[in-house]
Amino acid sequence: MVKKLNIAFIWHFHQPVYQENYNEDFLMPWVRLHTSKDYYDMLSRIEDFKNIKLNFNISPILVESVERYINGAHDVHSRLLVSDVDALNNEDKNFILQHFFDANYANMILKRGYYASLYNKRYSKDNISTDAFTNQEYADIMANFTLCWVDKRFIEIFPNLKYLMEKEENYTLEDRREIFNIQLEIFKRLADLYRKYQKQNRIEISTNPFYHPILPLLLDIREDKYQYCENLPEKSKLMEEDAAEQVLKSLDTFEKFFGKRPKGLWLPEQCISKKAVQLLSKLGIKWTVADEGILANSIHKEFTRDFEGNLEDPYDLCANYKLVNLKTNIIFADSFFANLVGFGYGNYEGEIAANDFYEKIKTIQNKLENSPREEHLLTIAMDGENCWESYANDGEEFLNTLYSLIENDSSLETVLMSEFLEKSEPIILDDLSSGSWINRNFDLWIGEPTKNVAWLYLDKTRTALENIKNQLLEEAKNGKEKQQALDIINKAKQEIFIAQGSDWFWWYGEPNESGNDHIFDYLFRAHLKNVYKILQKPHPGYLDVPLISIVGKPVREPKKMITPVIDGSLNEKIDNWADAGYIFLPDSPTFSSGKTIKGIYFGNDETNIYFKFELNKKNITNSKYFLRNQIFLYFRNETRNILSPARTTIRTENIYPIIENQFTHEIHFSFNDTEMLPLNMAKSTYGGLWASQLLKKANYAYKDTIEIAISFEDLGVNIGENVEFCIIAATNTNLNEVYPQDVLLSLKR
Fold first, then answer.
1. Which stretches of the chain drop beneath a pLDDT of 70?
2. Three-class secondary structure of residue 132 per DSSP
3. What is the pTM of this model?
4. Alpha-carbon gap, residue 132 to 671, rounded angstroms
5. Burial class (CB in 10 A: 0-12, 13-18, 19+), 640
């Protein structure tokens, strides 16, 4: 008889705080849209599978946001949806054209023929006029956008939804208001559905620290070693206290909303450390989840997989663990399965993907047949909301087929996490490595110039709050005044908690880009400014400056003139570039290919301007190709009036402000993993054209790094004059990155 394999699905639901202030509209619609597409649907489908049990992690912020919608809140999108289109101004129409096509084209837009035609019309020109659309078309864009985010399962619940879904055009104001009211009704039914299945013991609900902070970094911001540490604050006792308070606030809110205290706590982004587990154990948390890479580091054993991704030995991963003298179980999730669902299966037919998933489960089960342990657990823990847009029919065929295959296999059993732990003895871990589900470190949230500045601003604001708190309490003359002071302090502290959320740091700096980074940046700084506003103190001026403008700027300006040896080698004894300016460019730690360049040094003496490019050799195309790796240096001297535009092609809609400049000189070179082609120079000429010029005094070398020296004479820069410049990385002359992105760098001869 085949040994039974336990399977724990943990679907994580989270959205950050999209409000600048509590009583204002949400600036993004994702709580509303995912509620009508995913949160209800992901649970309700188990009505068809009587033996399937699921685990859900629900963020307290999400619970709070759902309640706000029920109590009358709107987001910017929904406010427009229910408005009379004849009253729309040009700004409203621009917003609709910019944001009401934010959906998967193949699986959401294309399925609605008229909506797809409006999409094609919208993107038929780079800068289409708002006058190109009628008011009725604006109404139809908003209605179709909202409906493509409503799961078709609700047609059985709301009789008029089928008519609204099929209509596709000529939506009236009453139609659009009915669509929104249906979404509100889904909100109202959501909590009851989760309470119902929790009571039936079909699901277990866990939660996470309230505002989704990276808990290990609050407990000790110096927990790990980072690529870049400038501007990073020191460990803060105040942040450590906040970590515990965020967990307790979450547990209390959960108990109030769902009727019982959770046994499990999801650490945001599966970011874990020994200090974090010690805190959870102290607070009575029964279990948490981490990534398989953390277990590999902790037991010093890599998990080897075959060419199909199957583990050669799944024994260590299919168990629960505890640290010595701590109460909290640590379950390590199989990241391969999570990545298959999140990033791999979306383009496959649902049934084919589900059968492949099932066969991989059976492969693990067969390999555990001779294990000395009686109970084994395969844990699949992942985001449960964002991947389904890439699946046909919102993942219905995939999930239904997968659940059916598991339910009809008597040797497989889906379990609630706490139930499994009742029957399984933990393995004792001697130590626990720190890190997250991405690359086993915290690099997506810290250790990068812009992220570090965000942490610095947060730390400064938290310290300011504590100082003002002490002052307010000292000045309170009686119990009433003391309570008033505490109310103000707690209100300000909530803004700090919001700013500690993981999402702000995820989108800041490299490598992630949401398309709405400016909104995340605005909200982060707004919540820090709210602290000062609540305390009736002026906020520091730096909080008015967008942090995203820091991207690509030098993290260090040149300290003095340099005259480095141009040999392309790393000489540890002599640092010729110690006084140079420096731009830090971290490699992408996610699934896409990373950057070729990881750092740029620059500086000058009275004769030359110098550049040194640190390389990520693993990302450089092999020796057969040169055009895949190109660098363009664009210069502008202050005496020449004939200018020409950069010659790289921009492949995205993101137009860097710096590209709007024109230049006097272009230096270009190509390289591969072992060689570098000679430098080429062009000089601006009339009509915005470029003419090739001979470089008289250039020098370059390529070995460990690329180092070049360009004569000021070649650039036409006289003594005492300034030269401005920027650096562009390109592939086949297609622009990849530009440094900096807004203001040209400048050096004086």
1. 1, 510-516, 548-555, 571-574, 585-595, 618-619, 621-627, 649-657, 733, 741-742
2. helix
3. 0.74
4. 46
5. middle
